[in-house]
Design brief:
259 residues, alpha/beta, Rossmann fold, 2 domains, 7-stranded parallel sheet, 15% strand, binds nicotinamide-adenine-dinucleotide
Length: 259
């Protein structure tokens, strides 16, 4: 059921082919938006688009690796030539498990390229059009790792800390242009991202690890992608027009109730 009015709004969602991004894409489309999914895995994006259009809503898939500046420029400029850029959600991100000794230089570079530079690339390209319009909303997918230490997540925490501070910086610099910028910081949300890193890093112990990770949220479970999408729907809506420069944890009590 639609709860917000996104009709006539163009919403760009990076990493919309899976997990949280898939839920975001489906919810924004359900609420009337014209959704553009930017994902480096085109088939996944196309599958989500097919489900959205079969349900009678609007969505398009674009092959785009957010870490590649020229590709991002081409794709976003192409969308911007035909539509307003109302909402940009920087959701694409990759994980890495390891403390600083377990983080090779190549791991650090890879995490930087996608999780930090990817966000920079998309905002850098989209912001000019938003300024011209005198309006726009940017929402970045940060993490509880942005503000509290999570063991064995050195590179990931570093990148998500940067997502949080990029949010503050952009919010401050463009408040006079009618552009709002916020972030969401989920604790663990059950997506292929979580299943993937459990399978890769804890082979043979998947069920035990899943249980352990569920319990790190005081509420006793992981979040659902749709719960994150509902918060995003509000934050990007006109109803949230007084909200900018703020991070929103959605964490089953992880930050404030642990310990
Ligand atoms: P996921 O792996 O299920 O989906 C990520 C999507 O991003 C995939 O479709 C993938 O193809 C795409 N992607 C990856 N690299 C890309 C690139 N370079 N260019 C374009 N697309 C790319 O992940 P998810 O769990 O849905 O996570 C989404 C976001 O939420 C990430 O930024 C992640 O850090 C953040 N987050 C996730 C959790 C969690 O527990 N799942 C918690 C906190 C924050």
């Amino acid at each position: 059921m639609a709860t917000f009015n996104y009709s006539n709004k163009t919403v760009l969602i990076t990493g919309g082919g899976s997990g949280i991004g898939e839920a975001l894409s489906k919810q924004f489309a359900l609420n009337g938006a014209n959704v553009h999914i930017l994902d480096y895995q085109l088939e996944k994006a196309e599958q989500v688009v097919e489900e959205i259009t079969n349900a009678g809503h609007k969505a398009q898939a674009h092959q785009c690796d957010v870490s590649k500046h020229e590709q991002v420029k081409e794709v976003i400029n192409d969308i911007a030539a035909k539509h307003t850029l109302d909402v940009l959600i920087n959701n694409a991100g990759i994980a890495h498990v390891g403390n600083i000794e377990g983080t090779a230089e190549a791991d650090l570079d890879r995490l930087y390229e996608v999780n930090i530079k990817g966000v920079y690339n998309c905002i850098h390209v989209a912001i000019g059009k938003m300024k011209e319009q005198g309006s726009g909303v940017i929402l970045n997918m940060a993490s509880i790792a942005s503000s509290v230490g999570i063991s064995d997540r050195f590179a990931y925490s570093m990148t998500k800390g940067a997502v949080l501070t990029m949010t503050y910086s952009v919010a401050k610099d463009y408040i006079g242009d009618g552009i709002r910028c916020n972030s969401i910081s989920p604790a663990r949300v059950h997506t292929p991202f979580v299943d993937g890193f459990i399978a890769k890093n804890y082979p043979g112990n998947e069920a035990e690890m899943f249980e352990k990770l569920s319990k790190t949220q005081p509420i006793g479970r992981m979040g659902k992608p749709d719960e994150v999408a509902q918060l995003a729907l509000y934050l990007c809506s006109d109803e949230a027009s007084f909200i900018t420069g703020t991070d929103f944890p959605i964490d089953g009590g992880f930050i404030k109730l642990n310990g």
